[in-house]
Every structure is written in structure tokens, then in C-alpha cells.
């Protein structure tokens, strides 16, 4: 009995070690104008940096949060099923960002005072990327200034709790930081707002409070950067067990949310091994050895 307890503890620790060192990075699909968009963000948000830009991807950070921009063409578009909630501690900074994002954008909720925040707005910018601007305290969101927020709507309406349970199993380094339910009305008992940490990364989730005509698409995906093939296998198998495989490391979970499961050294592999790009196009789950030895 003691041996079994020790073995289970070792297996659990190993499982945590596999996963805790990952990074989750939002990836946004653009119609061949990712660099233009990131240059706009660098003029809109303080602390924005473009680290790499080519014809395929742009890599950078906004307010300390890593982002990837994909020059994918018109096939997919971002929408408000995944928005980025930016927490501000001053009205002046929030208002300045609002003025820039709302130009040529689509206002979802106007800049105003609401029961949940003294100053708040929801806007899709000119590139279709959805932002929630919230006056609050960074201490409440683990000092992470931008929080990717998942909204379960259309066919996924009412599945937020189920998704939170799944992500709790997917990420052993998972911490629920509160779930608030709708107290009445059509969506009573569904999730009004939830916050959680996965691999030390703060995210939020909710069921929509209104009927919507959109849901998750490849327009915004979440990239899991893995240190080795063991991590890739773990995430890929868990996500696709009830989800859906796609090409080049892309997959969807059972809620339609798109993930990219990739080795953290993917850029170096594709740069240093000329045949790796062709090999990648023929893969679903990424096999590091096959990329290198193609």
C-alpha cells in the first residue's frame, strides 16, 4: 500500500513537471497584415514590442504578454468569442487606449460606468480583434495586465463549467480563482465570469449573457509551447481525445477552441533544417525527430 502511494505521488509530480514549464501564447489570424496590426498596437499600448516579423508570422508582446500574429489570409477571422481583457488602474490610461482602439473599430459596449466597474468598454478594433477595457486592480488578476477571455456562446452556450473542468484536468498546474453564476434570467446558473490560472498564466471564461451568432474559430487560437516530444504527445492526446485533429500542430478541443501544440524551438527547427517546412505540412501532430531528419 505504501509503495502504491509513493508511486502515485511520483507519477503526479512527474505529470506536473511535464506541464508546469509550458507557455500559453495567444495567436491571432490576420489577412496578411499582421505586422501592420502589431505596429498599430505598439502605438496604442505602452510596453509593446515586435520581436520578429516576416511574411508568415509576427511575434511580439503587448503589456508583457506574448502574442503571435499569423499572416494567414482571409480564411479565418478573429471574433469576440475570445477577447483580451486589459485591466487598467487609471482612468486616463484606459481612456487613451479606448480612443485609439475605437477608431475604425466596432463598439460592443460603450465606454461608461457599469455595476461591475467604474469605467469599462468592449470594442473590436479595426482588425477584428476584441478588447475589453476594465478599470480595476492588477492584484486581482495576478498582476497580468491582459487576460485572454473565453466566451462560450452559440453552439457552446452553457458549456463553460464543463470546459473549466476539462482544463482543470488538462493543466495539472491549474488553479480556479472564482466562478460567478448568472443569478436569474434565461441563463441562470451558467457562468457569468470565471478566472483561473493554467501553468501560471491567467485566463478568464464565461457563458454569454446574450444570444450570439458566432463561436470559437481558428481566428484566435492558444499556442502551447512544449519543451519536448513527451509534452507534445501529452497535450495532443488529451485535447484530441474528444476533439479534432488538424494540420501542422493545430487541433480543437471538444468545445471548438483551437490550440496549437508546438515545440518551443519550432522557429529554430524550421530555420535550420530546410526540409522541415515541407515535412511539417504533411503532419497533424508534430513529430520533432521527423522534422529534423526530413
TrEMBL record:
PANTHER family: PROTEIN YJDN-RELATED (PTHR33990). It comes from the Bacteria. InterPro entries: Glyas_Bleomycin-R_OHBP_Dase, PhnB-like. CDD domains: PhnB_like. It holds the Pfam family 3-dmu-9_3-mt. This is VOC family protein. Residues 23-133, 144-262 form the PhnB-like domain.
